[in-house]
Amino acid sequence: MSKEKVEILIEGGKATAAPPLGPALGSFKVNIKEIVDKINEKTQAFKGMKVPVIVTVETETKAYDIEIGTPPVSQLIKKEAGIEKGAGIPHLEKVANVSIEQCIKVAKMKIGSMFVRDLKSAVKTVVGSCNAMGVLVEGKPSVEISKELDEGKYDKLIKEGKESHDAEKSKRLNDDLKEYQKKMAPLVEKAKTKEKKEEAAPKEGEAAAPAAGAAPATAATPAVAAKKEAAPKKEAGKKK
C-alpha cells in the first residue's frame, strides 16, 4: 500500500482546514474535519507554542495516523515559568521559580522522546534543564532538588502524575524567588561587571588604543619618502 505524509507546524490546539493543512489533505480525499479535530485534541497541552505534526495517509484505504511532536524542553519550561528567555549567568542569576508539579507536567510531555526508564528520571532531566536556564525548582537550585528526588521526597506526586499547584503555592514560589534574587544580587552584579571588563579589554594580538589627546603615529607617505631620498647630502668636513 502507498503511504503519503503531510508535515506541518501548527499552534497547539489551533489547527484548521485552511492552508496549508486543508489543501494538502484534500488531495487524499480523507475526512479533513475529523483529522483537524484530532490534531487539536492531541495538541491542547501546547497552546501558545508551535508544534510539529505529521499526518500519514494510506492512499487506498484512506486510513491515517497522526504523529504529534513536542517543542524542546527549554520551550516548555519557559511557558510554565512565564519567561521569554533564560538567565545570562544561570549558575548565579535566577529568572523564575517553578514547582515540582510543573516539572512533572513537562516530563510527561517529553518522556516519549527521552532516553529514560521512568517518569521520575524524566523529571530529573527537566530539573537539570531548569538549572541550565537559571530557573529554580521549589525555590532551590537543581542540585538540591535532584538530591530530594533521589531521597523520594516527591515520589507520591510523581506517582499521581500531578501537573499543577494552588494559588497559595504560586505566591510562595514568587516570594522565594525574590528572596533568592536579593541574596544573590551582589554576586550577579560582580560577575556581570567582570564580564564587561573582559569584553572591553583588547584581545590578544590587537594594538592598544592610543591615549586620549595623543597624536596617532603614521608612516611616511611614498611622496614624502621619495623627497627625502632625493635631497642632496652634505659632505661633512670638506672645505674649498
General description of the model:
The chain has nine helices and five strands, in the order βααββαβααβαααα. It is an alpha+beta fold and 240 residues long. The chain folds into two domains: 3-68, Ribosomal protein L11/L12, N-terminal domain (Ribosomal protein L11, N-terminal domain, 2-Layer Sandwich); 73-195, Orthogonal Bundle (Arc Repressor Mutant, subunit A), CATH 1.10.10.250. It has a three-stranded antiparallel beta sheet. A two-stranded parallel sheet has the order 4-5.
Q: Can you tell me the CATH architecture of the largest domain?
A: Orthogonal Bundle
**Name given to the CATH homologous superfamily of the largest domain:** Ribosomal protein L11/L12, C-terminal domain
Specify the helix fraction band: 40-55%
Question: What percent of residues are in strands?
Answer: 5-15%
| Unreliable runs | 235-240
- Order of helical and strand elements: EHHEEHEHHEHHHH
Report, as a whole number of angstroms, the end-to-end distance.
115 Å
What's the arrangement of strands in the largest beta sheet? 1-2-3
Overall tally of structural domains? 2
Shape: globular
Number of strands: 5
Structural class: alpha+beta
CATH class of the largest domain: Mainly Alpha
Biggest pleated sheet: 3 strands, antiparallel
* CA-based gyration radius: 32 Å
